[in-house]
Design a protein that fits this description.
The protein is of the alpha/beta class and 266 residues long. It has a single domain, classed as Rossmann fold (3-Layer(aba) Sandwich), CATH 3.40.50. Helices cover 45% and strands 14% of the residues. The protein has a seven-stranded parallel beta sheet, with helices on both faces. Helix 1 links the parallel strand 1 and strand 2. Helix 1 packs across helix 8. The longest helix has 29 residues. It is globular and about 55 Å long. It starts with 6 loop residues before the first strand and ends in a 7-residue tail after the last helix.
C-alpha cells in the first residue's frame, strides 16, 4: 500500500497504459481520477476500479479542460498528490505525405496536452504546499527515430525535454517530474503494429528481452517513480523497453508500403 491516502490524476486513463497505471495505483491504496476524451470507456473503467476511482471527461489539448480536470479531482478527492500524463495519439506517413492536420493533431495531444496538464497539475500541487510527483509518458521514440513517424518522434522528444525543464522549475516546491519511455506495449494505440505480422515479427527481432511490454510493465515503473522510494529522482526518463533502444527501430513504414504494393519508402 505504497500510495495509501494519495490522490492521483491520470490522463488517457480510459484504456491502455493509462488504465493499467490506474489499476496499479488503486491496488496500492490511491484514489484515482481517470481523465479522457473517451467518456464511455472512462466511466466503465472507473466503475470497474470501485469507489476509490472516478472519471472526468477532458480534452487535454484545451487549457480550460486541463484546468477543469484538476479542479474536478480536488472536488472529488480533496487534493492532488500524483499525476500521470498518458494521453497520446500517433500516425504513420512519410514526411512528404504527412499532412499538417496529422502533424498538428499529434503534437497537440502528445506535447501541448502534456504541457497543459503539467501546468495545471503543478499549480495545484504548489498551492497545497506538500510537494507531489508528475510522470509523463514519453516513448523510446523520444530518442530513436522511426521512418514515417516524424510528428510522433518529435512530440515524444519534446515530452522528454519538457520533463527536464519542469523538474528544474518545480524542484523547489518539492514536486518531482519524471518520464517513462515505453517500447512496444500491447495497447490499443499499438494495435496496428501488433496485428500486422511482418511488423510484429520485426519488433520482436529487435527486442532483446524477446517480448513486447504490457501496461502492467509500465504501471510498475510508474509506481516506483511516484513512490517515496524515488524521492531523489527527478528530471529523468526511465526507458522500459526490454532493451529495445539498444537495437534498431523496425522498418514499420517500409513493411506497410510493401503490403500495399507501393515498394520502397526511399
Amino acid at each position: 500500500m505504497r500510495l495509501q491516502d494519495k490522490v492521483a490524476l491520470i490522463t488517457g486513463g480510459a484504456s491502455g497504459i493509462g488504465f493499467g497505471i490506474a489499476k496499479r495505483f488503486v491496488d496500492e491504496g490511491a484514489k484515482v481520477m481517470l481523465a479522457d476524451v473517451n467518456a464511455v470507456g472512462g466511466i466503465e473503467h472507473a466503475a470497474e476500479l470501485g469507489e476509490r476511482a472516478a472519471f472526468v471527461e477532458a480534452d487535454v489539448t484545451n487549457e480550460s479542460a486541463a484546468a477543469e480536470m484538476v479542479t474536478a479531482t480536488v472536488a472529488q478527492f480533496s487534493r492532488l498528490d500524483i499525476a500521470v500524463n498518458a494521453a497520446g495519439v500517433g500516425a504513420l506517413a512519410p514526411i512528404v505525405d504527412h499532412t499538417i492536420e496529422q502533424w498538428d493533431g499529434i503534437l497537440n495531444v502528445n506535447l501541448r496536452g502534456v504541457f497543459l496538464s503539467t501546468k495545471h497539475e503543478a499549480r495545484q500541487m504548489r498551492e497545497q504546499g506538500e510537494g507531489g510527483a508528475i510522470v509523463n509518458i514519453a516513448s523510446i521514440n523520444a530518442r530513436q527515430p522511426a521512418e514515417g513517424m516524424a510528428a510522433y518522434c518529435c512530440s515524444k522528444a519534446g515530452v522528454e525535454m519538457l520533463t527536464k525543464v519542469a523538474a528544474m522549475e518545480l524542484a523547489g516546491y518539492g514536486i518531482r517530474v519524471t518520464a517513462i519511455g515505453p517500447g512496444l506495449v500491447d495497447t490499443p494505440l499499438a494495435a496496428a503494429f501488433i496485428n500486422f505480422q511482418p511488423v510484429r515479427d520485426e519488433f520482436l527481432e529487435n527486442i532483446p528481452a524477446g517480448r513486447m511490454g504490457s501496461p502492467e510493465d509500465i504501471a510498475n515503473a510508474a509506481l516506483f517513480l511516484v513512490s517515496g522510494e524515488a524521492s531523489w529522482i527527478t528530471g529523468e526518463t526511465l526507458f522500459v523497453d526490454g532493451a529495445e533502444l539498444t537495437k534498431r527501430y523496425p522498418a514499420v513504414l517500409q513493411r506497410f508500403m510493401e503490403a500495399q504494393g507501393r515498394g520502397s519508402a526511399q
